[in-house]
Amino acid sequence: MTTKDEAAIRTVLDERTEALRTKDAALAVARYAADVVSFDLAPPLRFTGTEVTGTTGVQAWFDTWSGPIGWEIRDLNVATGGDIAYAFALNRMTGTKRDGETTDLWVRSTTCLRRMGGKWAIVHEHVSVPFYMDGSYKAAIDLKP
């Protein structure tokens, strides 16, 4: 991995963080490849292509928040090999929804990137929370690092 590649990938992730904080839907999807596959927190099990890169759904989700969305990246690891890279981290999402519900949630994320046309693009991402395997199958949203 080169320092230049790692810095470029961190910039991609920082841009997306800024998009979340400012609720900028166009910036939030700007670094996704056209054929991206995403395993996100919300159903369905998989989103592909324009389901991910379209700004309508992203903006609709942003509109459910009454103020800024907090997004913290913790323990970020980045690795590259040629034109392929991945990054994984713990992320904290905070904020207040329009209905008054407050959110303070840690999630796990893995982002896979490919260098295309000289720029890093997100080709796959997986964001998840663990669940309790005690038979309740409830999301373990109370975990903290």
Task: Give the secondary structure arrangement, pairings included.
Blueprint: H1 3-22, H2 25-29, E1 32-39, E2 47-48, H3 50-53, H4 55-62, E3 70-81, E4 84-96, E5 102-116, E6 119-128
Parallel strand pairs: 1-6
Antiparallel strand pairs: 1-2, 3-4, 4-5, 5-6
How do you describe this structure in short?
This protein is an alpha+beta fold and 145 residues long. The protein contains four helices and six strands.
In sequence order, what are the helices and strands, one letter per element? HHEEHHEEEE
What CATH calls the topology is Nuclear Transport Factor 2, Chain: A
Seen as an oligomer or otherwise, the chain set is single chain
In this structure, how is the largest beta sheet organized? 6 strands, mixed
Helix content: 25-40%
Structural class: alpha+beta
Integer average pLDDT: 95
The Cα radius of gyration reads 15 Å
Any idea how many domains? 1
Walk me through the structure:
A hairpin with a 2-residue loop joins β5 and β6. The chain is built from 4 helices and 6 strands. The protein has 145 residues and is of the alpha+beta class. It has a single domain, classed as Nuclear Transport Factor 2, Chain: A. It has a 6-stranded mixed beta sheet with strand order 2-1-6-5-4-3.
Keywords:
Nuclear Transport Factor 2, Chain: A, 6-stranded mixed beta sheet, alpha+beta, 145 residues
